[in-house]
């Protein structure tokens, strides 16, 4: 049994003092809470449900080799599982990207693809964010069936106020696809209706949606008051003020899912990049279109966890939002846990929450965050 030499670990979302042991033969955690602890903290491998690209790879145009390169680079930042996310584009290009993602195979030491997140095209033209308006459309069940049949689609983001949205939610739920509400001008009532039909996630709360007011709470109000809904959150200084992040955690700490909304520019220097048909510039690590619109992030998921901690979120809540909570949306995937018998997908952090070691199935991976 290999010991990690840590002083404690997060197990089932709570701190457990003592070292962690790994069975290198099985690639699983052998024990937690061992005596003679060392230094640092062991946490489960991170799960990112919204990744548009990374390490120079844009998933809308990626081939098999590109997917492998991105998966390897994500693993070095502590991500063990993720959803390649496709923003709105022409249907033929989207279908091609879904097929390419379906052909991508996990490589030793690389992050695992959970399935494809379709962020569109059934979104509101009033809240498009960086999505090309010319490709947005009302829900179309025929097109939706084509997209779902093209490959391993596991999540679809839609605007619940659009005509036909509830029928699309029903179709996705029957197909085992996670439905998320986002890029939307929906009222709280329209959002509640989608949740009643089976929507179970909110795509990047506060961003690209109807603002919360005391008489018109919109998606934000519905999301923070419905216990069955997980809440995606981009915890970086460009997208959300500290108070917005704190508010979300205080209202729904056990339902927050930290995501990066990462781009091909993630892990790369400043410069010009593309997200499908959208060009953007990265300056000082912040990605914007020429008109100033934010275009996702270059932050790592562990960086988002650290930022949440820096503004006052407890380490347990911040880590759980990038591990255990997203894992609950994928039951049976064997991710997001660090109990004896679980897969030894483990990160070792120092006292400043910086990455020291990465283990995938008990095999060390060179960290690169």
TrEMBL record:
Binding site for Zn(2+): 119, 183, 204
Record keywords, A-Z: Carbohydrate metabolism, Hydrolase, Metal-binding
InterPro entries in the record: Amidohydro-rel, GlcNAc_6-P_deAcase, Metal-dep_hydrolase_composite, Metal_Hydrolase
Cofactor note: Binds 1 divalent metal cation per subunit.
Active site location: 261 (proton donor/acceptor)
A single GO BP: N-acetylglucosamine catabolic process
Domain of life: Bacteria
Cofactor(s) for this UniProt protein: a divalent metal cation
GO molecular function annotation: metal ion binding; N-acetylglucosamine-6-phosphate deacetylase activity
Positions of the Amidohydrolase-related domain: 42-351
Family to which this protein belongs: Belongs to the metallo-dependent hydrolases superfamily. NagA family.
NCBIfam families linked to this entry: nagA (TIGR00221)
Record-given protein name: N-acetylglucosamine-6-phosphate deacetylase
Taxonomic source organism: Amycolatopsis decaplanina DSM 44594
Lineage of the species this protein comes from: Bacteria, Bacillati, Actinomycetota, Actinomycetes, Pseudonocardiales
